[in-house]
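== Fold encoding ==
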Amino acid sequence: MRKTLLRYFLCVFFIISALGFRLPDSILPVELIYFVGYVTGPFVDLRWGTATEVSNYGFDVQRTPDFLEWETLGFVEGNGNSNSPKHYSFLDSTVTPSGIYHYRLKQIDTDGQFAYSDTVTINFATSIQESPLPPSTFSFTNIYPNPLNPSGKINFSLKSRSLLTIELFSSLGQKMSVLIEKEYEAGDHSLEIDLNNFTSGVYFLKITAGKDIKTLKIILLK
């Protein structure tokens, strides 16, 4: 009797596996290795990474001030199937630079299953960074001169060929323009930022190379 029942359950298991269904309460096959955030200017910079991925559709980035209601801020596309580390980032420019915010990731599988990450808390009063960030893929010197009137130069170094994007944000976090979007080879580079079409004031440059993001505060005086 026991052997008959065992054969029955094994048959059911192999049929389910062959049809591609998941057994109930299976764990989503995405291994999250870090999820961190920190304050940069008036923004919150969130970064996370995975060790491996299977059928990863992507991530909803969610925020709450009080754990009562979660707001979805945006979606970051996953890498589907991967057996190598992948790194992601999201810049929240909709916060008021004060108070405390809590963030989580809703990881979504290609078949609609989902799971939530642990929560990351950002306190603008203390600007505490709870975990170290992964090694940077590029470095740059501060823009010179700063204040700009109306242009300045940035020197930067890339460890590998990357798409470099530089976006201009107002002091309130409003995206004003995409100034640079170009692929550069590994090595040292220099480029000029021209803000002749903008009015005097305080701005932020969001500099993205691959999965890495840096934010630079600038002042324009004309």
About this structure: The helical segments are 2-19. The longest strand covers residues 43-64. The chain has two domains: 30-123, 138-220. Residues 2-19 form the longest helix (18 residues).
